[in-house]
């Protein structure tokens, strides 16, 4: 069984473990300082960055964090309401293809509707075909390409 809820301060080590697996999946690295900074923004109620945790529960109701979804609300020049950028979504490998990522996306969609958010958007690598098979079912693939200018190493 899966429970989805906002992550708590007690989840730092488990969140960090999953977040590092996510970074490894995308061949990326972040310093411990940036990881800690990101975590502090997530748990700071004054910030508009959030994390939903996907927890598997056992018969004795013990929860194990098996997936995370980090997302940000922000203003947009294309809308009167906030939009939501889904920045990171990752399910531990042993739990993939069991509907957990879909459950996280459905939960986020419900939260955004309640909060009058106009749209949710995200990106994924062009070769992440497994994730795209889910995304193609729940979202519209746009024609836009992403560009970036890196200002710091």
Keywords:
153 residues, alpha+beta, Aminopeptidase, 5-stranded mixed beta sheet, 5 strands, globular
Question: How would you characterize the overall build of this protein?
Answer:
The chain is an alpha+beta fold and 153 residues long. The chain has a single domain, classed as 3-Layer(aba) Sandwich (Aminopeptidase). The protein has 4 helices and 5 strands, in the order βααβββαβα. It is globular. It starts with a strand and ends in a 15-residue tail after the last helix. The model has no long low-confidence stretch (mean pLDDT 93).
CATH topology: Aminopeptidase
How many separate domains make up the residues? 1
Structural class: alpha+beta
Please provide the ordered H/E string of secondary-structure elements.
Answer: EHHEEEHEH
Output mean pLDDT: 93
Low-confidence stretches: none
CATH level-1 class: Alpha Beta
In the CATH hierarchy, what is the superfamily?
Answer: Gcn5-related N-acetyltransferase (GNAT)
Widest β-sheet, arrangement of strands:
1-2-3-4-5
User: What gross morphology would you assign?
Assistant: globular
Helicity range of the residues?
25-40%
Task: Please give a quick description of this structure.
This protein is an alpha+beta fold.
Describe the protein's topology.
Blueprint: E1 2-6, H1 12-25, H2 32-43, E2 49-57, E3 63-74, E4 83-91, H3 100-114, E5 120-121, H4 129-138
Parallel strand pairs: 4-5
Antiparallel strand pairs: 1-2, 2-3, 3-4
